[in-house]
Write a structure and sequence with these properties.
The structure is a homodimer. In chain A, 65% of the residues lie in helices and 6% in strands. Chain A is mostly helical. In chain A, helix 2 packs antiparallel against helix 6 and helix 3 packs across helix 6. Chains A and B meet through helix 1, helix 2, helix 3, helix 6 and helix 7 of A and helix 1, helix 2, helix 3, helix 6 and helix 7 of B. The structure holds a DNA duplex.
Amino acid sequence: MQSPIRTPPTPRPSPHAGSAVGGASTIRADQRLFLTDEQLRTGIELLFFAYRDFTADPDRILVDREYGRAHHRAIHFMRHRPGLTVAALIELLGVTKQSLNRVLRQLIADGLVEQTVGETDRRQRRLHLTAAGRDLELLLSETQRERLRRAYLEAGPEAVAGFREVLHRMMNEGARRLLATTTER
Amino acid sequence: MQSPIRTPPTPRPSPHAGSAVGGASTIRADQRLFLTDEQLRTGIELLFFAYRDFTADPDRILVDREYGRAHHRAIHFMRHRPGLTVAALIELLGVTKQSLNRVLRQLIADGLVEQTVGETDRRQRRLHLTAAGRDLELLLSETQRERLRRAYLEAGPEAVAGFREVLHRMMNEGARRLLATTTER
DNA sequence: TTTCTATGTCAACAACACTGACATAAAATA
DNA sequence: TATTTTATGTCAGTGTTGTTGACATAGAAA
């Protein structure tokens, strides 16, 4: 667990960080400023624009192939959680099995995904990427990693920590749990 | 591609995240750790889950009415940039005029949006929310503001500054320009 | 043996994006 | 003034991705 109150670390050189220098009242004011409706509104818009551009890169690549964003998401999770079950993938993606199935059927038919029967429970189908599947996943995600890498590098480790912190706290409990089970944060 | 190195427990946003205590080599190592492929991957997933939950709140409200996310986006920008032209809204949303038009027609028919003829250029249609339109926008965005407010409050102003910083650097130049013209950051 | 679970599939439908084509009024320009 | 360009609206068709509902099968569990 984490303490809900962050200790203000060294002020990062950021266009948004207000100068915390001044009398006690100034500090008090600064502590509230980041919660104004105006700040929240620009936060909403930052999320909108950043996420849009972030997903646009792989989308462009997928246009040529006959795949879409749903395929990317599916193979993303298969890459990093090899052998996961269909049910687990459905939960991660937050879609119905019918919706996933359409995507999965294509990926299997095209030889990007393989299924193996569960060892203990033979009803389960465990999902794995083939070499071709991994290739495509890498190609797609590299565009996103590159964008993120650049942003991280420019913003610096302090900012990145805050970025992750806020995103983490934005998620629902369910998503946080899902992330925790497959990721050591 | 993927570095086989296991990322040691991520430099978690800890209270001492910024404390530059330690030898020079320690600092050097810390500076790189946040750029590992593993860190980038979890960043991608954080974005996915956070954005999904973030948009789910208004979506739930919209289900009852006969509107969708596209309507929310449109009235969001109309609320904060009253009088903007159709072309400007198209550019902000990044959709075609045909796509926007379908949404806009409904909103106007339902009395949530009004158009006025441009003063200098009478070809333009300037868009405004009616009182009812503002009501709906407030209802929808309040769920998002509330989520963001809580996350901001828990994470603290430093983290929020980093959050905004990284998002800002993730955007394309175009989006950054768009945001700048209508927002004093 | 009966029931539940994990998965797959068909069909229908809705939201939201796209392209392409065409129309109108008003501004801009030759 | 005549012509062209611009801002907007609209029709028609299409694709991706999501939904619900119904039904089937194999295997686990009771």
